[in-house]
Design goal:
The complex is a heterodimer.
Chain A lengths: L2 H20 L8 H4 L9 H10 L14 H4 L13 H20 L13 E5 L2 E8 L2 E8 L8 H7 L2 H5 L10 E7 L4 E9 L1 H6 L9 E10 L11 E3 L5 H13 L4 H31 L2
Antiparallel strand pairs in A: 1-2, 2-3, 3-4, 4-5, 5-6, 6-7
Chain B lengths: L2 E5 L8 H15 L5 E7 L1 H12 L7 E5 L19 E8 H11 L3 H16 L7 H22 L6 H8 L1
Parallel strand pairs in B: 1-2, 2-4
Antiparallel strand pairs in B: 3-4
């Protein structure tokens, strides 16, 4: 099912404005690295060179198209791509960042889920599967955009001592549970979310359930596309007794609070692993190793 | 809305529909079906935290009630003016604590949770057990509720207040 991907994309839009200040992890790249080398006005490094060639003035004289310092890389390489002093500093920074992140990595291997779940990874998407007496239960989630903003904590913490106690980054993705019976052509699909209290406060102050079912729907078995024409039960205005039965149904199939806790741990480890991989790829791209 | 059930812990697997059914039976017996109330299942850590914060006791316990109407005369139902005020408050059930007691006594969890919930709901209705008179009133109320419950369900539940007095 692709629903969680669509959802994750939605979440990305929702949190994008807050993400930069939300996590304690500072993004180790500046805009300069990701923009086109030609966009002079938006790149600090290029702008710095512009300033040098103008003796500090930004009006009047414009550099010629083939003038030396603007175009030619200060570090040469056989790949033919641009390499600036900034790129070198960027590469060195990434190298340090990767080392720091590897130190923070508790374990190279991913934590195991209890309950006999098989894990299958496809990039940032994880799929957990188990079979139970003729039923197949599949749980999928994507670690992209799965770190919720916790800027409220930063505001509340205030004091110096608390600022030093940075909260750990936790990945809490939406996850989709799909229950398939051998005799049925349709799967029962649950769209589940972690509660915000659980993610942001972590220890002690939580007043909400660890996770909640948001939507329930029947979908054609094995169909990758989410069929929007299938009736979707939204739990916002649902009879509480029905909601409890749905939660019990999931718990009987191994999707309970313990599972949700372990999923969060797994997702956090996957996200961190993917983050380090991304940094390494970025370093390779910048340095042109 | 009726009963809002929340399970904030992962130590004891709780069948929510079973717990809801049992508590709903209690609310019918007590004639408080039209009121909302929260039943919140927590572990010892959380229970100890709440007990410490609100009662200055640094230990977990089986049940803590937070009545919305704090000055109710025992047994008198509140008369709210607005529909929004049809709420009695929250009962925190220490399911880990109750489970440990059940293991010691080799008894079942759900009957024990029903007895504990009945005690907690009585607190929401203004019952206390700080004096002997209050204790007797509460015991009488719980006995009535659980006798009715036993009659309807064929159970043999005993009030929590009575159990506590036997222990003391």
């Amino acid at each position: 099912m692709l629903k969680h991907i669509v959802r994750a994309a939605g979440a990305a839009v929702r949190v994008s404005s807050a993400t930069s200040s939300a996590t304690t992890r500072t993004l180790p790249f500046s805009c300069a690295a990701l923009c086109s080398p030609c966009s002079v006005t938006t790149q600090p490094i290029t702008r710095a060179l512009w300033m040098l060639s103008n003796n500090g003035t930004s009006t009047g004289y414009r550099p010629k198209l083939f003038s030396s310092k603007v175009i030619y890389p200060s570090v040469s390489c056989g790949c033919g791509a641009l390499h600036t002093e900034g790129d070198k500093a960027f590469g060195d920074f990434l190298s340090d960042e990767i080392k720091e992140e590897e130190k923070l990595q508790k374990n190279k291997s991913l934590p195991k889920m209890s309950g006999g779940w098989d894990l299958e990874m496809n990039g940032t998407e994880a799929k957990l599967t188990r079979n139970m007496s003729g039923e197949k239960i599949t749980v999928t989630f994507n670690v992209n955009n799965s770190i919720p903003p916790n800027f409220e904590d930063e505001v509340e913490q205030g004091g110096q001592q608390k600022l030093e106690e940075k909260s750990e980054i936790v990945s809490a993705p939406n996850f989709v549970v799909e229950v398939t019976k051998q005799t049925s052509k349709h799967s029962l699909v649950f769209d589940c979310h972690f509660s915000e209290d659980e993610i942001s406060h972590g220890e002690g102050e939580e007043q909400s359930e660890i996770f909640a079912i948001r939507e329930v729907s029947f979908q054609p078995e094995g169909d990758l596309d989410w069929k929007e024409t299938s009736y979707t039960l939204n739990t916002d205005s649902l009879d509480w007794a029905l909601y409890d039965h749905l939660m019990d149904f999931l718990a009987d199939r191994g999707v309970d609070n313990t599972f949700a806790d372990e999923l969060m741990e797994l997702s956090t480890a996957v996200e961190h692993q993917e983050y380090i991989k991304f940094l390494e790829e970025l370093q390779g791209f910048v340095k042109c190793n | 809305m009726g009963i809002v059930l929340q399970n904030l812990q992962k130590i004891v697997p709780v069948k929510r529909s079973r717990l809801r059914r049992d508590v709903e039976t209690l609310t019918h017996i007590m004639g408080i079906q039209k009121f909302d109330l929260g039943i919140i299942c927590v572990d010892n850590r959380k229970m100890q935290q709440i007990n410490s914060r609100y009662r200055n006791k640094r230990s977990p316990t089986d049940v803590l009630s937070f009545p919305l109407y704090q000055d109710l005369r025992p047994g008198k139902l509140p008369c709210p003016l607005h529909k929004d005020e049809l709420n009695l408050g929250d009962v925190f059930l220490g399911v880990e604590f109750v489970m440990s007691r059940c293991e010691e006594e080799s008894s079942d969890l759900y009957p024990a949770l029903t007895v504990t919930a009945a005690h907690g709901i009585c607190h929401l209705l203004g019952f206390r057990h700080e004096t002997e008179e209050e204790w007797n009133d509460m015991l009488q109320k719980e006995t009535y509720i659980l006798n009715e419950y036993n009659r309807l369900t064929g159970s043999h539940l005993v009030p929590l207040t009575k159990k506590s007095s036997q222990k003391n």
